[in-house]
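Please predict the structure of the following assembly.
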Amino acid sequence: MKIHRIEMREIRMPLVHFFETSFGRTTERRIVLVRADADGFSGWAEVTCGESPFYNYETPETAWHILRDFLVPWTLAGEFNSPSELAARFRPVRGHAMAKAALENALWDIEAQEKGISLARLIGGTREEIPCGVSIGIQNSVEELLDKIARELAAGYQRIKVKIKPGWDIEVLERIRERFPRVPLMADANSAYSLDDLPRLKLLDRFFLMMVEQPLGWDDIIDHAKLQKEIATPICLDESIHTSDDARKAIEIGACKIINIKLGRVGGFTGAIAMHDVCRAKGVPVWCGGMLESGIGRAHNIALSALEGFTLPGDVSASKRYWKQDIIDPEVEVSAHGTIAVPARAGIGYAPNLGRIERVTSRKESFGKAASA
Ligand code: OSB
Ligand code: MG
């Protein structure tokens, strides 16, 4: 595969409802999209970082810089037998996994189109539909949160994840359990606690949560291992797991029982598949996390979730929960039993809506040569 042209663009799209975590509130997304052209095919992917360096250190601005000045020229300079070779080519750049993932994942889309198969099948995915949950942010009131949960359950979603932080945790979970005693429920703290909060974290065991996600430091596994010995609720790690080796170490020291795999955080499909394989060999279930993606990133998440080890419902849900109008056709829809059908069409299986993408673009830059034909 020889990439002859790469286009980067930034799009801006308001969320239909703000999304709030322990690190802040998002109302409008800024997303860097990458389009790579090779052999008559175009592959698309997105950088999944947030607008501010709060989930991790990447932002649209850092991704633009790293892509434009390093990753894009390196990609245009070579030929590849497989998209997985990009990971090795990108290794000199430390970190910046979300910038790397966008380019690598665009090449996976091209590879699937060249082979005439779906991206899900190309990476070894076997599922025809994936189980879906929703991640519900911190709301202005508990009543609003309870209403939202009721609506998502009525729509068919298989599990509810709520965001927690000090001041929005035990009392909120109590109210949720009062009204929904048996729904599959989990809580994500996005690193809002430390071991000093142990007495409070122990109270989580009252609620029979499926798991608590990343309660402690964003770069920690040691304290999570200490915490896991003190609580019955399974710990799921997100922020602190970047490589399959991180996953192996965390599992070996007992820092978690479940891992949330995000394509951006792990640098793309090559890293995600490796992490999935390590977890599977160790009997640790995984699920696919979300980063408020546009339809492009969402399509990649659906393909990843088709792998056998993704046994738990993920944070991959319908386009309309995020956008008035998504940038792909068709939009991602969820069935009444809380699943998304994995598309059988070649590549990511959804068509980027070029007119719509153009309308929401705020900047654009191209590299390499247009096709000569
Ligand atoms: O921790 O999983 C997280 C969104 C932004 C940053 C971090 C996280 C999230 C979500 C949203 O939980 C998941 C989604 O609906 O895309
Ligand atoms: Mg999380």
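The chain has two domains: 5-116+352-368, 121-351. The longest helix spans residues 97-115.
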